[in-house]
Amino acid sequence: MYRELVEALRRVLWVERRLTPDELRQLAEAIIDYGRMIAQEEVPALKQPYVVVEIPELARRFRETTQTVKEALLLLNEMGRAEPFSSGGHWKLKLEGTFRRRSRGGAA
């Protein structure tokens, strides 16, 4: 019973926690990385310039709320790396020209 209560409390606290701007950028980069992974699995021989993702699917994958995922996608939209694809929560991620920045030794 104690374990169930602790798990329920963790879930509630996680859902209500807002991401910092840096955490939101990290989530946005993770979404782009996930899009690249999908593109490689679907047709590895073709280099597709974009991939379509769904907000609910991303929320489950990253264990975030749909609102937080939407905020990350809106950030990517501002950067020109994503755009709404349909009214059903689908977004098109632009994969061409998106390179993941890697920091070495903590320097950005």
**How many separate domains?**
1
Kindly provide the name of the CATH class. Answer: Mainly Alpha
Per the principal axes of the C-alpha atoms, what is the gross shape? elongated
- Per CATH, which architecture? Orthogonal Bundle
Whole-number mean pLDDT: 81
Low-confidence stretches: 98-108
What's the total count of β strands? 3
Summarize the biggest pleated sheet: 3 strands, antiparallel
CATH superfamily: Winged helix-like DNA-binding domain superfamily/Winged helix DNA-binding domain
Strand and helix order: HHEHHEE
Provide the structure class.
Answer: alpha+beta
Explain what this protein looks like in three dimensions:
This protein has 108 residues and is an alpha+beta fold. Helices cover 54% and strands 12% of the residues. It has a 3-stranded antiparallel sheet. A hairpin with a 5-residue loop joins β2 and β3 (90-94). α3 (55-62) crosses α4. Mean pLDDT is 81; it is low at 98-108.
Write the layout of secondary structure elements.
Elements: H1 2-16, H2 21-42, E1 50-54, H3 55-62, H4 66-78, E2 82-84, E3 90-94
Antiparallel strand pairs: 1-3, 2-3
Helix pairs in contact: 2-4, 3-4
What labels describe this entry?
alpha+beta; 3-stranded antiparallel sheet; 4 helices; 108 residues; Arc Repressor Mutant, subunit A
